[in-house]
Amino acid sequence: MNATDDLLQDHIFIRRLQAVIEKCYALLYEGKDIPFGDLVKIADIIEQFVDQFHHGKEETSYFPETEHKDHYSDEVRKFVLEHEFGRRIAKRVRIHLEEFLQGRDAREPLARYLKTYSVFILDHTSKEDRFFTDVKENRSLSEKEEKRLKQEFERMKHECVKKSGNLVGMLEELEKAEWAR
Questions:
Q1: DSSP code, position 55
Q2: Is residue 23 helix, strand or coil?
Q3: Which of 38, 102, 135, 164 has a beta carbon 3.0–4.6 Å from 48's, enabling a disulfide?
Q4: Which pLDDT score, from 0 to 100, does residue 34 have?
Q5: Phi–psi pair at 149, nearest 5 degrees
Q6: What number does CATH give the domain 3-180?
Q7: Is 16 exposed, middle or buried, given 0-12, 13-18 or 19+ CB atoms closer than 10 A?
């Protein structure tokens, strides 16, 4: 698997998270309870996997490598802006989650920002999927560039696991939770 395929695989994981988030916000809107620990796991995966790890791979390695090739500079700029938008939504999720955990009436804003993040995931990953597919089809990156990026991604993955633990396992736990079925 090359670096471009690696990013596409991340999107599959992120869309699995989106399905969990969708179920979560729907239940919150219905007034049903989600275990606090599971809400924290969702916020942690958003911050640590989606933003720090996945968007980090794109922003620090992949986009700098692709932005000056072909016609990609405008797309890369838009993706970076969208990442910032996603960070702002994630920050609001964390703020309202903390309020909710402290017993304040934050169910509705937490559900609203989770829904907003869910929509962001679907929109953003679909646009990036088209971009990555275009990069692959046009062979915009050489095999050597893909290999170097993949090695960088592996280093980043090791650091992420060391810092955050098994985020894939955390998502699997969420998917198996009674409320998420």
A1: I
A2: helix
A3: 164
A4: 96
A5: -65, -40
A6: 1.20.120.520
A7: middle
Q: Helix (H, G, I), strand (E, B), or coil: what is residue 40?
A: helix
What Å distances lie between residue 167 and 29, 49, 101, CA to CA?
A: 26, 7, 22
Q: What are phi and psi of 37, to 5 degrees?
A: -60, -35
Amino acid at the residue 168: V
Please give the angle made by the CA atoms of 89, 3 and 63, to the nearest 5 degrees. 50
As given in the structure block, the two tokens for residue 139 are 């062979």
- What the block records as the tokens of 86 is 């996603």
**Spans of all domains in the chain:** 3-180
Count of residues making up the chain:
181
| Cα 169 from chain centre | 15
Look-up of token digits 């471009």: 4
Tokens of 179: 């409320």
Q: What is the pLDDT of residues 134-174, one digit of tens each?
A: 999 999 999 999 999 999 999 999 999 998 889 999 999 99
